[in-house]
Fold:
Amino acid sequence: MVALVEGMPGVWLRNNCPCPECRDPRSGQKLFQVTELPAGLVVRGAWEGADGGVEVEWGPDGHRSRYPGGWLRANRPGAGGGTSDHRTEAGKELWRAGDLAGRMPTASWEDYVGAPGERARVLAAVQRLGFALLRGVPRREGQVLAVAETFGFVRETNYGRLFDVRVEPDPNNLAFTSARITPHTDNPYRDPVPTVQLLHCLENAAEGGNSGLVDGFAAAALLRAEDPAAFEVLTRVPVPFVFRDERAELRADRPLIGVDGLGRIREVRFNNRSTGTLRLPADQLDAFYAAYRAFGELLLRPGLQLDFRLGPGDCLVFDNTRLLHARTAFEGSASRHLQGCYADLDAVASTLAVLRRADTLDTLAELFAGPGAAEYLGEEVTVAEHMLQAAALAEAAGAAPHLVAAALLHDVGHFDGAEVTGAELMEGTDNRHSHTGADLLARWFGPEVTEPVRLHVAAKRYLCTVEPGYREQLSAASEFTLQVQGGRMTAREAAAFARLPYARDAVAVRRWDEAAKEPGAEGLDFGHFLPLLTALLGR
Structure:
C-alpha cells in the first residue's frame, strides 16, 4: 500500500474520487449519491503516479481513482484538526480592546478597491476579528451599497436596501434618535439574522456620538470560564426577540448564545430593546434572568469595549452575529449622519477564498529569497534558514500540512518590505511579529495556518511556565526576546492560553522554532514546500 493512502477509510477516499466519472469537470460537483457506492469497498491496489499522486484500483467494481499528492497530504483524516467552521470561535481571534492597540484593522478605500491582496487582508480581518474600518470612502449618498457589493450582495430588510442613521422626527427604532445605545446586535428578531452590517459616515459634527465594539464571542467565552452554569442556560433557553411597527411584525426565538454541535460559540444575539416576554416556569425564569444579567454585566466590563469615533468617509464593516456595537449619546440638533446596509458572511468567505486562489505565493517566495537572507536575531542562521529548518523538522515529524506551513512561515512578521524588523526586538521593543505575520498570512491561508503563527510567541511564554527545564534550553537570544515579549506567563494566563483553539498547534510550532537554529545544516528550499502551500490556499 502506498504510504499516502495507507490507513485512510476506504469509503471516505472513494467518496472523494476526483475522476470525471465521479465529478463534473466544470463544477466539481459529485455525479453520484453515497447510496450508489458499492457495498464492501476495498482497495485492490495502489500505485504512485508520475506526478507524486496516487492511483487506486477499487474492488469490487474495478473503478480507478487518481488523487493528487498535495490533496492527499492536505486532506488526510485529522490533518485539518477536525471540523473547521470559520463561523465558530475556533476560526476567530478573540479580543479585548487592549489587544488591538496599534493594530486596528484599517485600510484606505483606494488600496482596498485597487489591490486584491489588500482586499483579501480586509475581508480576512472581518472574518477573523469581526470587523474592519475603511478610510476615505467617497462621501456620496448610497456609497455604502457599493462597499457591500465589493464582496457580496445587499441584504434588503423592512428598513430597505439602505437606511439612514440620524435623528428622525418619528423614529421606529432608538437607533434613529440621539440617545445612548448600549452594546447590542442588530435585527435579532429575524431568521436568518443579517450577518454583516456596514455603517458609512457621511457627517459627524456632533459632540458625542462616538462608536464602540465589543467582541461578543470573547465575552461569551469569559462567561463560560467564570460561570459555566450561566453559559449553559444562555445556550439552551430560546429568547423571543420581537419587532413591530405599522408595516412589519417580526419574531425569532433563539438563545442569546448560539453554539454548534461541538459546543463552540457560533452566534451571539443580544438586544435588550427587542427582547419579548419569556413564558417559562418561575424557577427557570429566575435562572435565566440571573444568567442574562451576568452576561449583560460582563459585556459592560471595563477593557472589553473598543471605543473610537467614525469620521466623514469612514466605513465600518462588521460581523453582526459576533460583535456588539454601541454609541454614546449626542446633541440631537447636531449634524450626525451615517448610512448603513446589511450583507452576509457567506459572501465575505466566498470572496476571500476566490481572492486567495487568484493570489500567487510569489510574495512569500520573494521574502525568503530577499530579506530572508538577513541575520536572524543574534542566531548563527539567517531568517530564511531558520524557518526552512523549522518546516523540515515539522515535515520529518509527520506533522499535518497546515502545521508544516505554520512552521515554515512563523517568522514572516519580522519582514517589512525589504527589511527585517527584528532589530527593534533585539533593542528591547516588541515588534509583535507573531501578530503581524499572521495578519499577512491571512491574505492566503485560513486560521489553521495563521493562528499557530499568531500564538507561537505566547507558546514560548506558556512553555516556560508549565514545563520544567524548558527555559534552560533557550538560546541567549531567545531568552532575551522572552523578556521583551512579556516573560513567562502567570498560572492564570497559562490556563487561559491552554484553552485556546490553536494552543496545541502553537506549542508544536514553538518546539520546532527553538530547534531550528543549526548553522551550516543541509536544508530544503522554499520550492520544496510550494505544492503543500498551494494545496492549502483558500481552505
